[in-house]
Inverse folding.
């Protein structure tokens, strides 16, 4: 997961969408690796130490071994990632983008399954999801969320 604060340039997590997403992922049995440039201390205060929650030192570290990336806060450093470097770090090239940072057509062309929340999935991603329902639910899987 990339992004824990409710907006960039703050550590405030009081009304952060990340909190709702984290709770749902944990309820589904997921383990989450997360990174936020500012809100890490606040996340540790709110959630404490948990086996299913790993706070990572960098955005790339949050991807290591994860099934997918969820982008929750639109930090500037998340706007132009090295997609070629990111791809082998994830178990599958899947991004759930809650901030609509990227062009769905461009990511599809690069071989990513890209779900722009509010815009829907790119056409190719919908076909892949139909073929592999586990992509849609992620139960029991590791999710990198920011």
């Amino acid at each position: 997961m990339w992004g824990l604060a409710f907006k960039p340039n703050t550590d405030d997590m009081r009304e952060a969408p990340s909190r709702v997403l984290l709770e749902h992922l944990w309820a589904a049995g997921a383990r989450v690796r997360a990174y936020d440039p500012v809100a890490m201390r606040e996340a540790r205060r709110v959630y404490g130490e948990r086996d299913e929650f790993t706070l990572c030192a960098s955005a790339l570290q949050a991807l290591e071994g994860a099934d997918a990336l969820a982008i929750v806060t639109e930090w500037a450093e998340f706007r132009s990632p090295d997609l070629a470097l990111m791809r082998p770090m994830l178990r599958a090239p899947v991004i759930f983008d809650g901030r609509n940072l990227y062009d769905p057509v461009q990511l599809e062309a690069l071989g990513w399954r890209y779900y722009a929340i509010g815009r829907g999935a790119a056409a190719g991603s919908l076909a892949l999801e139909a073929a592999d329902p586990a992509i849609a639910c992620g139960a029991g899987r590791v999710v990198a969320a920011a």
